[in-house]
């Protein structure tokens, strides 16, 4: 069984992203195409990483606009058949519903509060209180609108799980293997802790793709999580 990990393919060029996808696909369930790759290469980015190895494709575009625009955007990428597609929960219930209707075959995944934001950042944008309160509020809103998957940090995963129940898929970026740099992430935990807190899919980018051997790094994370991967 592959590890429940989405490797963020945040590469400056498509050859690099496809190479990483090929290296990690034997070990992880999912590869993630984000804004950097999609804005530069468009649908070709999805096609290339899908060709590179057997893994689910997570299209992390974090759509956030008026409902009609998000519906159009979700429809525009639905034909690529991404397994997951992100929207911002803060776009509100009508926007989330618009995405759900526009891409019914895709797991629309609502981002609560970006994992790069700490308490001081939230205070600065007028969301005072602990990050977990804003995360839980947005999680409840998104699930109420029909979302079946959420993004939160591993630090809130247990609280969100308690709030939304066992059926909702929890996706957690902000995952850092012990001893690795947090970089621009603020609310982090190790892969083991994220899984124990109830996360279903751990998003890990630079700790894997920045390693000398991304395939070995992915295999190491998979082993730490108890997954047996095809590549050994
Ligand atoms: O709240 C969020 C939502 C999405 N992301 C994305 O996850 C990866 C994380 O990469 P690392 O290199 O492991 O930090 C990246 O693609 C983000 O766009 C997130 O970090 N936080």
Automatic annotation (TrEMBL):
Entry's EC annotation: 4.1.1.23
Domain Orotidine 5'-phosphate decarboxylase: 4-221
GO biological process: 'de novo' pyrimidine nucleobase biosynthetic process; 'de novo' UMP biosynthetic process
Catalytic activity: orotidine 5'-phosphate + H(+) = UMP + CO2
SUPFAM superfamilies: Ribulose-phoshate binding barrel (SSF51366)
Enzyme class: lyase
Keyword Lyase included in the entry's annotation: yes
Source organism, top-level taxon: Bacteria
One Gene Ontology MF term: orotidine-5'-phosphate decarboxylase activity
Cellular component annotations (GO), alphabetically ordered: cytosol
Annotated pathway: Pyrimidine metabolism; UMP biosynthesis via de novo pathway; UMP from orotate: step 2/2
Key words of the record: Decarboxylase, Lyase, Pyrimidine biosynthesis
CDD domains: OMP_decarboxylase_like (cd04725)
Residues of the active site: 60, 62, 65
Amino acids binding substrate: 10, 32, 60-69, 115, 176, 185, 205-206
Family according to the record: Belongs to the OMP decarboxylase family. Type 1 subfamily.
Function: Catalyzes the decarboxylation of orotidine 5'-monophosphate (OMP) to uridine 5'-monophosphate (UMP).
Subunit structure: Homodimer.
HAMAP family the UniProt entry points to: OMPdecase_type1_B
Name of this chain's protein: Orotidine 5'-phosphate decarboxylase
Species whose genome carries this gene: Actinomadura craniellae
Lineage start: Bacteria, Bacillati, Actinomycetota, Actinomycetes, Streptosporangiales
């Amino acid at each position: 069984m592959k590890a429940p990990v989405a490797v963020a393919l945040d590469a400056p060029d498509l050859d690099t992203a496809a190479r990483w996808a090929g290296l990690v696909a034997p070990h992880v369930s999912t590869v993630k195409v984000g804004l950097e790759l999609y804005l530069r290469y468009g649908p070709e980015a999805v096609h290339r990483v899908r060709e590179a190895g057997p893994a689910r494709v997570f299209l992390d575009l974090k759509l956030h606009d008026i409902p009609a625009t998000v519906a159009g955007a979700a429809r525009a990428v639905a034909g690529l058949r991404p397994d997951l597609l992100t929207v911002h929960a803060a776009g509100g219930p009508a926007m989330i519903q618009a995405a759900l209707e526009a891409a019914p075959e895709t797991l629309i995944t609502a981002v609560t509060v970006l994992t790069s934001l700490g308490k001081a950042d939230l205070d600065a944008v007028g969301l005072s209180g602990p990050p977990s309160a804003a995360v839980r509020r947005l999680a409840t809103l998104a699930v109420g609108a029909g979302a079946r998957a959420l993004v939160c940090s591993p630090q809130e995963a247990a609280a969100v799980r308690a709030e939304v129940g066992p059926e909702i898929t929890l996706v957690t970026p902000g995952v850092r293997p012990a001893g690795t740099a947090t970089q621009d992430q603020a609310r982090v935990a190790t892969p083991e802790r994220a899984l124990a807190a109830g996360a279903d899919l751990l998003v890990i980018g630079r700790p894997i793709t920045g390693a000398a051997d991304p395939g070995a790094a992915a295999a190491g994370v998979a082993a730490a999580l108890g997954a047996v991967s095809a590549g050994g």
